[in-house]
Amino acid sequence: MFTSTPRSLHGERPVEQLQTTVMRAELAALIDRMTVVDGAHQTAIPRLLLARASQMQHPVHAIHEPAFCVLAQGSKRVLLGEDVYIYDSSQYLVVAQNLPVSGQVVDASPEAPYLGLRLSFDVKDIAALGLDLQLDAALPNRRSPRGIFTGDLSTTLLDPLLRLTRLLDTPEDVPALAPLITREILYRLLKAPDGWRLAQMAMVDSHSQRIAQAISVLSQRFQQALRVEDLADEVHMSVSSLHQHFKAVTAMSPLQFQKQLRLQESRRIMISENVDAATAGHRVGYESQSQFNREYSRFFGSPPARDVKRLRELQLGRGGQT
After folding, report:
1. Is residue 189 within 8 Å of 154, Cβ to Cβ?
2. Sign of the CA dihedral with 194 first, then 200, 201, and 202 last
């Protein structure tokens, strides 16, 4: 198990430390003002989402799309397979692939709520920017990197983030300026020390890009029986190479990845469509009800009926907020 925790900022000069602190405080004030109630809030900027939580939360399991995540206040724990990433307002989190993760707010209170934002991005945008910057020639010859990583949040990233968030006060400026600022943020991420991890995901014919294709195939056909040999052929890799690089990127095997997709979808079906466990398990590809119940209980911590009942009670307790 690998644990990522916030690194020390002692390398920053005192003036930079002060600037970073002031900018994080301004970002927290903006998000606090723009999120009146707890939950995730879509904004006038299509890819920008703001989040607020006034208390520690139960883990939330989801397929996380590629995104840049920043906390202005509070802290969060994210699990990918057996990897654990813990970050707060001193760091950012980048998810570079569509990955099944578990996220949990671990530091929040009514007096000091968790305040964060998520800027989703399209891998095609990264590929286009990487081509403009000729990053493919500069990428290190390394194995496929994990599809999620953290980095230190500096003024060079906070500055465009603040400008992007301030645009919400002048929505008429969003169509013209938001794409430019978003491109600047992607540029800063690609130029960061771990930017090569993000760039490799979008480079044509890289192992990481082929794993992205494999993830796409699995996401579209997770209900079907999986033959790893067929998946390897489809993404033009050998079975051994697929296993090696898939686990490097996702922290799990293709079969484990498929299982998480099935279990998360079954949970969504039971909650949103009010169907029973047998129906949900069958719809996501399980032929054995006992196997479905066993794997569901192991993954979510309780049997399907009890888990769904708890989640519905939580939703009612929040008055239907998301």
Report:
1. no
2. positive
pLDDT tens-digit profile of 13-44? 788 888 999 999 999 999 999 999 999 999 99
Residue with tokens 């390394």: 142
Q: What residue has token string 């494999």? A: 214
Nearest Cα residue to 285 out of 258, 318, 310, 308:
258
Give the residue-averaged pLDDT of 72-98.
94
Phi/psi of residue 87, nearest 5 degrees: -140, 160
What percent of the chain is predicted at pLDDT more than 90? 72
Laid out side by side, the sheet with 48-53 consists of 39-42, 48-53, 114-120, 67-73, 91-95, 148-152
Sheet holding 75-80, edge to edge: 3-4, 83-88, 75-80, 99-107, 60-64
The pTM for the full model equals 0.86
CA 98, CA 311: separation in Å to the nearest integer? 24
3-state class percentages of the chain: helix first, strand second, coil last, to nearest 5: 50, 20, 30
Cα–Cα distance for residue pair 118/21, rounded to 1 Å? 20
Angle formed by the axes of helices 155-166 and 174-191, nearest 10°: 160
Query: Which residue in 133, 112, 147, 121 sits closest to 32, CA to CA?
Result: 112
Per the CB < 8 A criterion, the answer to whether 231 and 254 are in contact is yes
